[in-house]
Amino acid sequence: MKQKILDVDLLAKNFMQKCHSLPKIKVAVVYPCSPDSLEGAVEAAERGLIEPILIGPKAKIIKVADELSIDIRAYELVDVPNSVAAAEKAVALARDGAVSALMKGSLHTDEMMHEVIKKEGGLRTTRRISHAFIMAIEQYHKPFIVTDAAINIHPDLMTKRDIIQNAVDLFHAFKENFVPKVAVLSAVETINPDMTSTMDAACLAKMSERGQITNAIVDGPFAYDNVLSLHAAEAKKIHSPVVGEADIFVVPNIEAGNILAKQLVLIADAASAGIILGASVPIILTSRADGVQSRIGSCAVALLMAHAKNTMRE
Asked: Which domains does the chain have, with CATH numbers?
């Protein structure tokens, strides 16, 4: 069976149309002191996705805005001396319910996450915090998620359980009443006691069968090629409902995930958005090197997540 080719541009257009039907959310933009981080937040605001609160050194933010010829007078600007103070203020606003999401600017991820994961005053929940890339490439017939490529360095079995459940919940914010297929990746498709990732994959598949992971079909271990490609799977006689139809790719560790995601962007020209899950609010997380379009897409994902969360409360 030949897979259809995805029209990424059409997908993006339909996705943005769906987001525009939802009310915008307030977002604390943490240290938007680079051109891409400020422009991404402002353009997302102009598209009706977010109402940004810009948090950082006022003089720096205004200087960047002037260099870009952007008028930011319509947006609230909270003047704090540095990136650490910006992260502290943003987390406090989220904790108090003043904003529905956070957006990382030009500070380092560790600086922001240090405040997010604090036991006292942070944004922790009972779920382990994880990151998800939402991606689309022309060579694959539907959008997919890669997780976790940014937060958990070497996740153990139960952390991987939370990583999967976070990604599944994200998926359901896009497609309600649809069961996603989750591929747990390793270097091989057979179980090898000397490769922890294969053992974890087998356990996670069984945990899904027993209800410890809900609303998804989970299978593994898979090497990347034999779950993405029907031809590769057929050559190795691998049979699974996940093969050729994966919605979520779960990587064994941060190195594998980071390399995979960046290869997809740089070599396969993937459209991507990044978000942190498992905290009390969605956290828009892109690389400092990511462009404006990636930041806008990530804002749209946060909008859907916040809306889904509010719907569940109702």
From this structure: 127-278 (3.40.718.10)
